[in-house]
Amino acid sequence: MKFTAEQIAGILEGDIIGNPEAQVYKLSKIEEGTEGSLTFLANPKYSNYIYTTKATITIVNKTFVPEQGLTTTLIKVEDAYKSFSKLLEYYNQVKLMKSGIEQPSFISENVVYGDNIYLGCFSYIGKNVTIGHNVKIYPNTFIGDNVVIGDNCILFAGVKVYSETEIGTNCTIHSGTIIGSDGFGFAPQEDGTYSKVPQIGNVIIEDNVEIGSCTTIDRATLGSTIIRKGVKLDNQIQIAHNVEIGENTVIASQTGVAGSTKIGKNCMIGGQVGIVGHIVIGDRVRIQAQSGIAKSLKDDEVVQGSPALNYGDFNKSFVHFKNLPKIVTEIETIKKQLDTK
Predict the structure, then answer these.
(1) For the chain, which ranges sit under pLDDT 50?
(2) Domain-by-domain residue ranges, the chain?
(3) Of these residues, 133, 241, 278, 320, which one is catalytic?
(4) Which of 13, 56, 128, 302 is the most buried (most CB within 10 A)?
């Protein structure tokens, strides 16, 4: 897919300095630019690269004035970084602009789907499924019975959505993610074995949620596991049964949240965090990476460590953690001195 400088300037409402017919078909960093690539310059620290880059087109701020000759065509805009981001979004939309139902795929009875949907080959749609307008379902995806998917959603290849799941509008679910698998519920028996507790609830994902690859969200034992509006989940996250995650909370990869825990709005949770079940985490809480959360947290707390401490207390304590061998040696020396008196 090729774009000319004139087309790009039209999208960005920018001014061309150079060849309006210059064509690009790929993106690059400015220091790694090659012929046929589009790049941008926003950080002044990289200004020297614009004179050596081999990129065909470079997006720059309108305030940029070259100090020597250039081989790249410039597109001048108000904010190069924002314009480049806008262009990436546009490119992604064009790239994902698929429609139609590929074969082989299977659509069960009583399925309702909207306009301009895309269903990739080897996908399975269960009974009584409702799919909105402009939904993209990529190959090898499984949609179980009675699932509801809102408008403008994208489910990438290999997503598995179990029965009864409800997905809102404008959601993106990346490859390998599983939504609605059984919660981890087993009752111990007198003979030492475990009996499975039926998991008959569902998962509800509200609007504008994005879920990374290979994340698992378990269905509720009773009721619903709920992911509220605007939540962003990274890759390889485990969300257990009956968890609720509040609006606009973001969680980094390899985090695990145990059953029935409630997480508030606008929280930020780092990677490899472990959160026990049946606790409440307040709004706007910040949890640093690799922390272990064993008790409820109030609004606006910032914690780190395992078990997690107040972030400031953890940093003060860490100074002493590093010096423990020296401190122990000093204590032993003092004890010997006292013993000889």
Answers:
(1) none
(2) 3-95, 100-314
(3) 241
(4) 56
